[in-house]
Amino acid sequence: MKEQIDQIRTEAAGFDITSADKLEQYRLRFLSKKGLVSELFEAFRSVSGEEKKLYGKELNFLKQEVEGRWQAQKEALESTAVTENSGIDLSRPPQPRELGSRHPLSLVRQEIIRFFEGLGFNISEGHEIVDDWHNFGALNFDNDHPARDMQDTFFVQTHPDILLRTHTSTVQVKEMQLGNLPIRTISPGRVYRNETVSARSHMQFHQVEGLYIDENVSFADLKQTLYLFATEFFGRDLKVRFRASYFPFTEPSAEMDVSCFICNQEGCSVCKHTGWVEILGCGMVDPNVLENCGIDSKKYTGYAFGMGIERMTMLKYQMRDIRLFYENDLRFLKQFKSEI
Ligand code: PHE
């Protein structure tokens, strides 16, 4: 018995298995029903009890060994088959892949969104093509209101009532109409104005507007929120100031300036030597607007604010030409890397 076991072991170990055919021959010779190992098991049945004790274990080992080699060779052959058939050399190092970078406007939009999300604001979006009522009417712009001229508008020629939104306040109208109070939402999006393209202005740009409506919302809430935002966004301890201003949909209205962080208020071209840079418009939502959108203005008050993403980005990265955002010049875009 021992001799036979050794013999088969040596033969199996030396068997050349370099192809699928050979592998099959190996299986037939050793592992099939009529193979050598099976035959030895057959013979083992009729050996004496003493021999059984002596060689039982060894016989089992032999079987495991022979089967093990078959399995290992089978897997090895299969994996080389995949490589050969597909013509792919899996051992080659990969081609380095060049990763793109996010557009600076996306980065800054995301940063603004994250800040307000952290305060519990949700995000709302709307259409870029809207009717006059959503862009102007609901927001307290009378038909002949001169403020309509503040925002030069692109109208649809065949439907003068339909236009490209000039601000994302349109989304706030929609949210107020939905009326799930309290409302705490920010609306990022693209807006259009019929302006000559220059280094400072474009006929399309992006805004983020915020709206908070609840009982007892005050101007102090607005100031504190925007102050926190500005210091966080520009990453330093800035001074802020609110200047009285006018928007048809807010009363009182203000514009917010931050101390010029480029020249430390010493005077430079960015702050036009005033030491202050304007960053956004804001105010308390006019009661008329609340009523236009079906909200009880005796019970609820709210604040709103709006800022241009391009402007915020230009200030943050000290850019001087808004057109760079839309030219897809890789030399410009590649400078903005992010972990987002
Ligand atoms: N909608 C205004 C604009 O586009 C910005 C603004 C929003 C001002 C909300 C006040 C309150 O200029």
What does this structure look like?
There is one protein chain. The two termini are 70 Å apart. Helix 1 packs parallel to helix 4 (49-86). The protein has 2 domains: 2-86; 104-339, 2-Layer Sandwich (BirA Bifunctional Protein, domain 2). A hairpin with a 2-residue loop joins strand 3 and strand 4. Helix content is 40%, strand content 21%. It is built from 11 helices and 10 strands. The relative contact order is 0.11. The protein is of the alpha+beta class and 340 residues long. It has helices spanning 2-14, 20-31, 36-45, 49-86, 104-118, 132-135, 169-178, 219-234, 287-292, 309-317, 330-333, and strands at 122-123, 129-131, 155-156, 159-164, 183-192, 204-214, 240-247, 250-259, 276-285, 301-308. Phenylalanine binds next to strand 9 and strand 10.
In a nutshell, what does this entry contain?
This protein is of the alpha+beta class and 340 residues long. It is 40% helix and 21% strand. A hairpin with a 2-residue loop joins strand 3 and strand 4.
